[in-house]
């Protein structure tokens, strides 16, 4: 008990719960399935926002797999996993910005109906994931990063639907490009939050380990 604070011990207990593990497997399956569905739809519709959201599903599925890999591990391992998640989210944001530039250069106009249908399906799936993960949003950096990813996804799905309406109303690709850029900004902001929390917990775990070694 002297080797960690009450907050750290509680986080370790929550992170190792069978319920959290079951939820992670469920949201992993949902995100992997939606990545396949949305990347195909995004390519067919020519939508930068849909493709960005599809890659977000892929990143989330990979992140949930990382969480399962460090399931029940020490705080330092979990903080390291959260750091990897934050870094991957930041890279994703930069990739989306590059995609927007490419579509702008080519004058792409996405198919609004496909954007609306797939965007609605993605929203339903992400709301379900957020509902499942809400009970774990007050855990350690690893658990919080999982919830932050899911929360960001819901916001992104609403934005995709707004982009679909904008494309339908204007007949141009600008709403799609604007939403994709906003999604990139959201990803980069979320990455900064996760990296800050993970770095703090990594240092905290190092201090706890040092005290333990002295004893």
TrEMBL record:
Residues 24-200 form the Cation efflux protein transmembrane domain. The keyword rRNA-binding does not apply. It is a multi-pass membrane protein. SUPFAM superfamilies: Cation efflux protein transmembrane domain-like (SSF161111). GO terms for molecular function: zinc ion transmembrane transporter activity. Keywords: Ion transport, Membrane, Transmembrane, Transmembrane helix, Transport, Zinc, Zinc transport. This is Cobalt transporter. It comes from Devosia pacifica.
């Amino acid at each position: 008990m002297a080797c960690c604070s009450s907050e750290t011990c509680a986080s370790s207990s929550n992170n190792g719960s069978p319920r959290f593990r079951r939820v992670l497997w469920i949201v992993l399956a949902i995100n992997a399935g939606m990545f396949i569905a949305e990347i195909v739809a995004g390519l067919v519709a020519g939508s930068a926002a849909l493709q960005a959201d599809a890659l977000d599903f892929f990143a989330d599925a990979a992140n949930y797999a990382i969480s399962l890999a460090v399931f029940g591990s020490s705080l330092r391992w979990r903080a390291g996993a959260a750091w990897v998640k934050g870094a991957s989210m930041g890279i994703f944001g930069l990739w989306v910005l590059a995609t927007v530039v490419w579509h702008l250069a080519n004058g792409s106009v996405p198919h609004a109906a496909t954007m609306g249908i797939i965007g609605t399906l993605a929203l339903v799936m992400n709301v379900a994931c957020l509902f499942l993960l809400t009970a774990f949003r007050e855990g350690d950096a690893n658990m919080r990063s999982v919830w932050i990813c899911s929360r960001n996804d819901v916001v992104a799905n609403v934005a995709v639907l707004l982009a679909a309406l904008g494309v339908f109303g204007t007949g141009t690709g600008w709403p799609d490009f604007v939403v994709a850029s906003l999604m990139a900004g959201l990803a980069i902001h979320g990455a900064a939050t996760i990296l800050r929390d993970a770095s703090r917990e990594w240092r905290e775990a190092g201090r706890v380990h040092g005290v333990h070694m002295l004893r």
